[in-house]
Amino acid sequence: MTVWTGRIDTAEGDAARRWHQVVQPLSTNQPAGIALLGFACDEGVRRNQGRVGAVAGPVALRKALANLAYHPTLPLYDAGDVVCEDGDLDAAHQRLAAAVSQNIQAGHLSLVLGGGHETAFGHWLGIANASPSQRIGIVNFDAHFDLREASEATSGTPFAQIAAACAKRGQSFQYLCMGVAETANTEALFNKARQVQASWRLDTEMTPWQLTETEAQLQAFIDQVDVVYLTIDLDVLPAAQMPAVSAPAGFGVEISVIEHLSRLLAASGKLVAADLVEFNPLFDTDSHGAKAAARLAWAICRSLKPLKT
């Protein structure tokens, strides 16, 4: 909790509070709220030959969130970090899944700060364990499918792992990837997306003037599932807006579009979990990336509606 510090405007009372003044440590028997959990890991990025440093993402993103203005939302809790220090990514995934499952079963929205995109497999596993009878829809804002085949888990394999786990469990794999860059995904990856019956939308189809069509595709996907897991790989944003990632985007999707769609999901009443991944503070410029990522997390929390039952 020591990172939650910032400006205090005492003269203006409670209406002038900021995030650092309202976030509480997560404990048992608290009212349903938003459980923020860090996944301090970039083992998957290292294995995927990316630029390591995302392990420091959770702390940097908390610092960026701390001084943002607080507006009424669900209670905010900090559940600490799951750490991968020994290179054992599989074990770290299991620890992340256990923490996420516990938070969701306690009635909280799971908000995870990565970490590389290997975060997604452990996060999904926790959601699936907490909601075994629900049709889970995965919405991934990402320049990459992350459907790679590999001998071990990496930041490029999480959705291939989830697809395989769904098949093993007899569950349908409901996956929508929005912001896909044709320049960053080989034909083999597009073939894999077709094989697992994924849906996608290219980055070139997500300009602000195409927002109506993008919204319609997203809403149709939401309508066909019971609950939604939103994962935002920050490399979906243009490099000028998000320099602090392993693979900066040469084109990308404007942050205004990503925020709008994230708010739509948060307000749907079906969102049970969200994460922001791949933030690497080693490559940030004057905290531009941290501020952009924090803005997206803030927008999700500000727009969140309780889960429909």
UniProtKB/TrEMBL annotation:
<feature type="binding site">
    <location>
        <position position="117"/>
    </location>
    <ligand>
        <name>Mn(2+) 1</name>
    </ligand>
</feature>
<dbReference type="InterPro" id="IPR023696">
    <property type="entry name" value="Ureohydrolase_dom_sf"/>
</dbReference>
<comment type="pathway">
    <text>Amino-acid degradation; L-histidine degradation into L-glutamate; L-glutamate from N-formimidoyl-L-glutamate (hydrolase route): step 1/1.</text>
</comment>
<dbReference type="GO" id="GO:0050415">
    <property type="term" value="F:formimidoylglutamase activity"/>
</dbReference>
<feature type="binding site">
    <location>
        <position position="235"/>
    </location>
    <ligand>
        <name>Mn(2+) 2</name>
    </ligand>
</feature>
<feature type="binding site">
    <location>
        <position position="233"/>
    </location>
    <ligand>
        <name>Mn(2+) 2</name>
    </ligand>
</feature>
<dbReference type="InterPro" id="IPR020855">
    <property type="entry name" value="Ureohydrolase_Mn_BS"/>
</dbReference>
<comment type="function">
    <text>Catalyzes the conversion of N-formimidoyl-L-glutamate to L-glutamate and formamide.</text>
</comment>
<keyword id="KW-0464">Manganese</keyword>
<feature type="binding site">
    <location>
        <position position="142"/>
    </location>
    <ligand>
        <name>Mn(2+) 1</name>
    </ligand>
</feature>
<dbReference type="Pfam" id="PF00491">
    <property type="entry name" value="Arginase"/>
</dbReference>
<dbReference type="InterPro" id="IPR005923">
    <property type="entry name" value="HutG"/>
</dbReference>
<keyword id="KW-0369">Histidine metabolism</keyword>
<feature type="binding site">
    <location>
        <position position="142"/>
    </location>
    <ligand>
        <name>Mn(2+) 2</name>
    </ligand>
</feature>
<feature type="binding site">
    <location>
        <position position="233"/>
    </location>
    <ligand>
        <name>Mn(2+) 1</name>
    </ligand>
</feature>
<keyword id="KW-0479">Metal-binding</keyword>
<dbReference type="InterPro" id="IPR006035">
    <property type="entry name" value="Ureohydrolase"/>
</dbReference>
<protein>
    <recommendedName>
        <fullName>Formimidoylglutamase</fullName>
        <ecNumber>3.5.3.8</ecNumber>
    </recommendedName>
</protein>
<feature type="binding site">
    <location>
        <position position="144"/>
    </location>
    <ligand>
        <name>Mn(2+) 2</name>
    </ligand>
</feature>
<feature type="binding site">
    <location>
        <position position="146"/>
    </location>
    <ligand>
        <name>Mn(2+) 1</name>
    </ligand>
</feature>
<comment type="similarity">
    <text>Belongs to the arginase family.</text>
</comment>
<keyword id="KW-0378">Hydrolase</keyword>
